[in-house]
Design goal:
Length: about 180
């Protein structure tokens, strides 16, 4: 049933927010010259997929977990995108394609070995990764791999339809700071 909601809301979101996506893409062209950011992430069953986001950092920024990146790498427009969470909008495409869900564990990078091991141990890779979830609305990021994996496992084991909508609502109204940048 959740997959049905993912399909409906991602398609609806892409259609309704198309003008916003277009404007943000154009502004991003002026900001970094490359407004869309593509990155290989760990998906369901540990299979790779290409995550799509709006670029918030300089093009030359290393492909590492956000908490390992310097704050100076974030562009002025990137600060706005992160604060409003608009940088996440393109991931609706990942949801529509079935690579992600609106709600689930945030997909990590393949070089986050400790996080991958913790999640594998707890069965977190049995579900699609998500745009938001319990860890995100509680400001738990990838800098605490064991706590993040434990929180992801708890969410997966107890996720209800009510929780699905609650996490989406909490994210939209600004709960959770996302991954921290030094």
């Amino acid at each position: 049933m959740i997959r049905s909601f993912d399909l409906i809301f991602s398609l609806l979101g892409l259609v309704v927010f198309f003008p916003v996506l277009l404007v943000l893409t154009i502004i991003g062209l002026f900001d970094t010259g490359s407004p869309v950011f593509l990155q290989q992430r760990v998906g369901r069953h540990q299979k790779p997929f290409t995550l799509v986001k709006f670029r918030t950092m300089e093009v030359s920024t290393a492909s590492v977990a956000t908490h390992l990146v310097s704050r100076t790498s974030i562009t002025p427009f990137g600060h706005f995108l992160r604060k409003t969470k608009l940088d996440e909008l393109p991931q609706l495409w990942n949801v529509l394609k079935g690579e992600m869900s609106l709600v689930g564990p945030r997909p990590g990078l393949f070089n986050q070995v400790e996080l991958i091991a913790e999640r594998a141990k707890r069965g977190v890779f049995e579900v699609r990764p998500g745009i938001t979830g319990l860890a995100q609305v509680n400001e738990i990021d990838m800098s605490a791999p064991a706590l993040l994996a434990e929180t992801d496992q708890r969410m997966i084991q107890s996720l209800t339809l009510f929780d699905y909508f609650k996490y989406i609502f909490m994210t939209v109204v600004g709960k959770g700071a996302g991954d921290r940048v030094r």
